Amino acid sequence: MHLKSLRVTEFASIMDASLEGLDPGLNVVVGDNEAGKSTLLKALRAAFFQKYRGRGEAVEAFLPYGGDGRRPTVSVGFSHDGADYLLSKSFLTRPAAELAGPWASPVSGDAVEEKLAELLGFVHPGRGDSKLSEHQGAFGLLWVEQGRSNIGLDIGAGRDAVTASLEGEVGTILGGERGRALINAAKALNDRHFTATGRIGANAPLKAIDDELATARQELSQKRAAFGELEQKLKRLEDRRRALKGYEDAKTLEKASEALRAAEAALRRAEDRDREWQAAHAAVKQAEAMRAGAVEALKRRDHLTAQSAASQKAFEAAAADFAEIDAAARSAAETVSAAAKAHDDARAALKSAEDRHEAHRRRADLARESAARDRLRSVVEQAGNLAEKIAALLARRDLIAIDQKALTAIDRAERARRDCEVRLQVAAPAVTFEPEAGGGVRAPDGRAILSGETQRVVSPSRFLLEGFGAVTIEPGGGAANLESELREATGALDKLLKACGSESEADARRLFAKRQELEAELKLLSTRRDALVPEGLDAARARLGAAEAAVGRLTAAVAGEPDGAGNLADDSETAGDRLVAALETARRNAAAADEALRIASRESEAATLARVSAESDLTHFKSQAERARADVEAAEAGLSRAALSERLAEADADLEAKRGRLSLTQRQREEEGAEAAEARRKAAEKALRQISQTLQHLRDETIGLEGEVRAAGGSGVGEAVQLLEERIADLERRRQRTSLEADAARLLYRTLLDAQRTAREHWLGPIKTRVAPFLKLLHPESDIDLDEETLELRGLRRQGVEERFDRLSAGAREQVAVITRLALAQVLKQGGHPAAVILDDALVNTDELRLERMHEVLRAASRELQVIVLTCRERDFRDLGAPMFRL
Amino acid sequence: MRLPEKAVEKVDARPCGLAPAQGEGHRAARIDGVGTQHMIRLLHTADWQIGKPFGGFDEERRVELRSARFAAVGRIAALARDRAVDAVLVAGDAFDDNTVAERDVNRVLDEMAAYRGPWIFLPGNHDAAVTGSVWARLRGHLSRRGLANVVIADEPAAIDLLDGRLAILPAPLVRRHEGADLTGWFDHAETPPGAVRVGLAHGALENRLPEAADAANPIAETRTTTARLDYLALGDWHGFLAEVAPKTVYAGTPEPDRYPSNEPGHVALVEIDGPGDQPRIERVPVALYRWTARSERLDGDAGGLEATFSTFDDPGKTLLKLTLAGSLSLRERVRLEETIAHWRDRFFSLDIRDDDLFDEPDEDDLDKIDLSGFVRTAIEALRAKAADPADPEREAARLAIRMAYVEHRRLSGTEG
Fold it and tell me: Which residue range or ranges hold the Calcineurin-like phosphoesterase domain (chain B) (predicted)?
């Protein structure tokens, strides 16, 4: 189909517009904003799809503003399937429709609408306005209103037309309407079992069976538990009954009673035996006592005899001991006498040695003391000389009364005098006498003053001028004072000098030097004296005195000694050493003699003591032995030892007999003791009690269990278990069947869907094939992604990267959308559907480079299709080489 | 063991005195029997399994099946009365479980009321005479009701009836599984001279039953000989098996409860002229429901099944377990489902096992699906799966193809 002409009058903003001679290929309609391009498209839609009698809001909008009474009219000339048609519709005012075609006469009125729907393959709405997406077939897709080009494809109902076109092209792979119905049916089957997410549905038969199964299983487990419990009780009951029967069959209770009676009899017997044993035991004890008495008497006699013998023996031994000890004591006394003598000798020898040694020592002392006295005497002499010299020097020094302090005072007084003198010289008037030749002047003191000699007058002076008389000069104030000061100073100096016996300062200094010299000499002498007698001369003299006294004393002592000793005294030191050694030997001998004496005395004392003790023992043993002998004799006189032995033998025989009796009863008692018998009796009693209790307990339990079992026995629980087991088996069978059905339904649905998807992918091929060359021009290496279900544009795949359509740039969106539309239009046309593409300002966002390429696309598309471009930018499409129409 | 005085008295008196006159022939026979003092007539039944729950069935059928078992007891009592038997021997498993409900026990006693002669009950493996067994409770009910004609043979001791002309030797189970032959004592059992010796036992006769039989309670196959029995009344095997060994009979369950076709639903009426004589055994049907198991092979055609179903006289009293094998085209499969759907409502129960019946879609089927486009692709994929023995979804794929077929036909039908 292609449009050939269009005339619009009194339609909205257009009062009259006309396009004539539209090319079957590419056309450009240029109009400024508000010129009515979009209205043109609206008018075209109105002509084809709006019922001319319509009065809806949309139709009202056809009226120009303030255009009551106007008659919006659209006339379209078009060619379709090789035939030419002329359609004319007027709305609102005298609505009319006419369609001229390859018929004898044009159709008019409502028949026009039917014819159009048939021709163009769309449906009119039951009522109301025609809607883009629902009622205008593929034209919604192909006639793009301004501003919608970048929204998507607006494919709507056009899908079916496209699908139909494609089916025509790719054959029957889509399975047609029946295929779609089968998918729906399969979906219904699937949905019976599964939710949209593939889970088992809440109302699915499988769920119901599973629920029922779960309930049955739970119930079964409860019933089984109940059954198990009953079985347990039955088992227990049987067990108890058997136990009870066992007791009864074995006459356990009777036997236990019998056993108790027997045990009681045994106990009585045992008690009798116990008493017998006790009697035998007492008899044995008595016999044992008797025998012990006999043994004891015999033992005592033997002991007595032995004691007597021992006493005698002890006495004899003591006598021997005494003799021995007595001899020893005597010997010790003799030893003491000898030692005492030796001791006295040693003592005498020691005294002699000591005396000799003492004499020798005193002579040595005398020699030493004499030497010391001589030395001291010399020292004292030297020191006395020195002391005399020192005394002389001291006298000389003391004559010089000047010392450092006096010298300093003189120095200071001299300086003060000189100072006064100088100041007086300065302050005193200078008088120069220059007498005429021959004249002379005399100073107050009478001397002659030389001419030209300047005289300082420090005090009122009276100069005699020869030839003149006298002149008295009295110096003014200061000079007079100074003069007195000087006098004072001079006085003071003189006084000081006088005090120290010097005439002048220089003299004073010389004196002072002399004094220092003397003092140095004094110091030297004192040092020498101090070296000789550091303790002082008097002390030295005293020591000398003492030494002399000592020498005197010693000389006297030596003089009194015997000569023998004195001879030795002159000898050397070796003599002293010899004396000392002799003294030491004598001392040692004396000490040894002392020790020997002491030991001898001690031993003698001990021997004496031992002798006393032995003597006492001897007396004691003697009396003891005599007493023991007397005792033995007395006892034997009473009852002889032989009689005692006989008595013991009798007691032994009696004890033996009684022991035999005891061991017999003991054995009997052990065999059947009262304790054991009592224990056995108690055990029997306990056993009887226990058995009675057990029996009672078993009977009670049996009765209780019988009651419980009776209550539960007829409850049909076994039947219930079996019923549930059978039901579960049945349900499981059903579940398996239903599960298979569900699986089959799902498999069928999925397989159908998969196949359909594959087929769709397959038949989307032609669209992509047509899009590809266009797209390559604009977006190389890219591919469009169409929703196989809705055919809507999903996006663009550029170099393998998916880009969602709504996130592409506005420019890319409109380009891709326009290209896809052109491709779809080609598909539609191929399928025999009317297809003409109108683009109303569809490429406003496209850049220049791409616009140029879009021109190529449009040109290529227009070789098969009519393409009408409505634009406000003439220059964008100037170079397209298409016929231009201007509004 | 001897029956209590009173019971024996009643037992002896009742068969003549109380049985209502129904059918002259029977009465004549009875009179003959009593008159000659020779012939013994017994009714031998077993395996009532009162209280069997029938869990595989829905509530309604379950109730009906359970009721049928009580009704069977009623019919047995009526038969015993009508045929004037000397005693009814119940060879074990009268009750399905020892915990059977009191109500059911009472109902059995009610149903037994028609026959006032001796009923000898042997505890079987289901109702073994263990502690707390149903028998203790039954005794309670008997004494409460003053019934002395019901004997519980729960001890291995001879029961003398008919003044010593008839000695019943029971081998009661006191455990569910004995493992040993309890009938051994029969060999040495003392009975009154001239008495007819009848053994009563529950278990598997050695070497005489199909392998499937439970051999937990064995019975020597030579027992009749070694114990000089004139008749050995057995229970446990639910089918009727006469002369399975000399003078040895399994009466089977009077009302079937399973599908195995071993002729259940009967009782044995036995006549014994005297010791050493061959017993005359009559098989009398007493069942209400018929349980049948069938196997059919369908290869490409489901039409034969209609005929199979039609052969059943009283489908409303029939439980049919039908095992189907073979393969069908989808068309035939759908036809089969329709046939089954129809008959399912006519049978008391129709249990179809079609695990071995496979769908084999042929070209006609696929033509009917009007295969084109992706549907063809999908069906091909499913067929490939269905044909691959290693595919875990093989079964599902088969069913999926059938579903597709059915849905497609439904859609086509709607369209048409």
Answer: 40-136
